[in-house]
């Protein structure tokens, strides 16, 4: 029933792209109008909701735009605009697939190429769009509709009303109401109910600007370096610097078809082509310059929310990139710890479940105590259903809502830390594991069979005194911890979520400790019996 409802929603006409204006006019409760007063009168005469009447009244009050000057009349017409959502993928809806009436879980359609993006708020109604157009000159005028022009529209949702558009106020980040003409910086901060922060885009200079990537130092004299990063389970080496630096972090989103088990593949949305994304390492006080490029071949917009960043959205609003775009932003790292990062574009849980997550280490001043080996491990869930292609899974939004994952995995796939790339250490090594839980739903009871955590930094806290001799710790979605181990006895140690049924969904990995010489520490662990794993055992290698 839910799938049928999703299909009806997807095909209901809330998403109209490049509809001929004659068809749009015929379907609309408002007739075409050439000025704001006509639009208001049409709205008042029709059986419309109160919010449309308010918008029409605001349009009438604002009055018609002045006649264009000769220069403006001679100028070429602006490109057609397409009203899009701040985050277009509200949910994954089903739409009819190929033969047999099958359906596939797909995101909302993307904006057609060649259309300028204009972000707007308001309500899902064609009449609403026509009223706003007549009032503010935004998307397409009613006069253009009367002439048979092409109008591009989109579903609009959100708490914003159209009064701001009628008054010539700005739209969401990335767009603006242009009916009032350009706004000079001398006019001061915008007074708006929108989400754009006061003073945003007022021409403030970036204090960490620099001419180019080959420049040795930025405007503050900080040395410019690439941000250290590594793919799981590896970790970048500890920071040896004693002074802050300006770090350049390049991240790219691509779509990759990767194995999640011997039986299935899944189409992941990735950072740098891997799941999880790379782990980065910096020092408190460093300046992080992020250069984020979106190469998602499906045309889906993405961004990055760094839990290590102080400011709105963890950087997500300024790093939102459509397909083919690169966004750049700088952040000062003020807080030491182990932090998650993830895509925060809507629908946020879908982007995380599809693989867009990773960890970021911000070392405290003075760094961390040295250890022999460091590893990077992330637990996550895969919400999927069979697709029309054998062996290939589709994302299931409804399984995500039900919190019923098909797989719960470590480092992106079943068997990734057992057969593919188990963690390797030597007897008596000191080992540190940076562990994160990407979720998006389940809390992890992280445990390692056969040893205790000599030190446990709960919640990624690297400055408070650590807990000692803990065997199991809870890590919520979006959380992390750092555990230090001492491994005097060689053999296999098992990483798992002690919500133990999840082992059968793939949440298990091995830490293999190799013996040094002949000293197997029989004083600590000994038996005359030969080790015999039980039939079908997944826990003891």
What's the short version?
The protein has 541 residues and is of the alpha/beta class. The chain is built from twelve helices and 28 strands. Residues 1-34, 46-60 and 80-203 have low confidence and may be disordered.
Sum up the structure in keywords:
five-stranded mixed beta sheet; nitrite reductase (NO-forming) activity; Immunoglobulin-like; 541 residues; 12 helices; copper ion binding; seven-stranded mixed beta sheet; oxidoreductase; single chain; Copper-containing nitrite reductase; alpha/beta; EC 1.7.2.1; 28% strand
Q: Estimate the global geometry from the Cα principal axes.
A: globular
Mean pLDDT equals: 74
- The radius of gyration computed from the alpha-carbon positions, rounded to a whole number of angstroms, is 28 Å
Q: Which sheet architecture does the biggest sheet show?
A: 7 strands, mixed
Uncertain regions spanning at least 5 consecutive residues: 1-34, 46-60, 80-203
So how many helices?
12
- In what range is the share of β-strand residues? 25-35%
Number of strands: 28
* Terminal Cα span: 44 Å
Helical/strand content category: alpha/beta
The helical percent reads 10-25%
Give the total of domains: 3
Characterization of the model:
This protein has twelve helices and 28 strands. The strands form seven sheets. Strands 7, 9, 10, 12, 14, 18 and 19 form a seven-stranded mixed beta sheet that branches. Strands 8-11-16-15-13 form a five-stranded mixed beta sheet, with no helix packed on it. Strands 20-17-22-26-24 form a five-stranded mixed beta sheet, with no helix packed on it. The chain is α/β, with parallel strands linked by helices. The chain has three domains: 168 residues, no CATH class; 140 residues, Immunoglobulin-like (Sandwich); 142 residues, Immunoglobulin-like (Sandwich). The N terminus is likely disordered. InterPro entries: Cu-oxidase-like_N (IPR011707), Cu-oxidase_fam (IPR045087), Cupredoxin (IPR008972), NO2-reductase_Cu (IPR001287). Homotrimer.
């Amino acid at each position: 029933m839910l799938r049928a409802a999703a299909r009806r929603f997807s095909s209901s006409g809330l998403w109209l792209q490049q509809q001929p204006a004659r068809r749009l006019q015929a379907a609309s409760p408002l007739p075409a109008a050439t000025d704001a007063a006509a639009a208001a009168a049409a709205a008042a005469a029709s059986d419309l909701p109160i919010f449309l009447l308010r918008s029409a009244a605001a349009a009438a009050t604002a009055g018609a735009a002045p006649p264009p000057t000769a220069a403006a009349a001679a100028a070429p017409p602006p490109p057609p605009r397409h009203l899009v959502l701040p985050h277009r993928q509200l949910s994954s809806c089903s739409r009819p697939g190929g033969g047999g009436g099958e359906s596939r879980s797909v995101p909302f359609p993307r904006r057609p190429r060649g259309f300028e993006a204009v972000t707007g708020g308001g309500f899902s109604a064609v009449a609403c769009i026509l009223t706003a157009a007549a009032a503010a000159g935004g998307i397409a005028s009613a006069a253009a509709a009367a002439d048979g022009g092409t109008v591009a529209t989109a579903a609009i949702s959100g708490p914003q009303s159209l009064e701001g558009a009628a008054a010539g106020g700005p739209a969401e980040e990335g767009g603006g109401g242009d009916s009032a003409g350009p706004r000079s910086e001398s006019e001061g901060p915008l007074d708006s109910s929108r989400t754009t922060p006061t003073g945003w885009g007022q021409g403030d200079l970036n204090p960490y600007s620099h001419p180019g990537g080959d420049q040795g130092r930025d405007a503050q004299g900080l040395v410019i370096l690439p941000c250290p990063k590594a793919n799981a389970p590896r970790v970048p080496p500890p920071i040896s610097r004693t002074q802050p630096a300006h770090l350049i972090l390049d991240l790219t989103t691509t779509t990759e078809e990767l194995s999640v088990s011997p039986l299935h593949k899944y189409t992941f949305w990735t950072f740098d082509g891997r799941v999880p994304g790379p782990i980065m390492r910096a020092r408190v006080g460093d300046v992080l310059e992020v250069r984020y490029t979106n190469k998602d071949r499906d045309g889906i917009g993405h961004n990055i929310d760094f839990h290590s960043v102080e400011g709105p959205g963890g950087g997500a609003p300024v790093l939102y990139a459509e397909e083919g775009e690169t966004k750049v932003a700088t952040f000062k790292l003020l807080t030491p710890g182990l932090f998650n990062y993830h895509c925060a574009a809507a629908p946020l849980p879908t982007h995380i479940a599809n693989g867009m997550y990773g960890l970021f280490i911000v070392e405290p001043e003075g760094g961390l105590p040295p250890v022999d080996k460091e590893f990077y491990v992330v637990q996550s869930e895969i919400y999927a259903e069979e697709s029309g292609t054998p062996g290939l899974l589709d994302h299931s939004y409804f399984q995500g809502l039900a919190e019923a994952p098909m797989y719960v995995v470590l480092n992106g796939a079943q068997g990734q830390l057992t057969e593919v790339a188990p963690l390797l250490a030597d007897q008596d090594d000191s080992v540190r594991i940076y562990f994160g839980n990407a979720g998006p739903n389940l809390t992890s009871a992280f445990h390692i069979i056969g040893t205790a955590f000599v030190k446990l930094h709960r919640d990624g806290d690297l400055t408070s005194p650590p807990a000692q001799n803990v065997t199991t710790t809870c890590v919520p979605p979006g959380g992390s911890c750092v555990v230090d181990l001492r491994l005097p006895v060689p053999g296999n140690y098992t990483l798992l979520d002690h919500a133990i049924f999840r082992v059968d969904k793939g949440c298990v990995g091995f830490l293999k400790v190799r013996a040094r010489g002949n000293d197997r520490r029989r004083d600590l662990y000994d038996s005359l019996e030969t080790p015999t794993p039980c039939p079908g055992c997944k826990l003891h290698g």
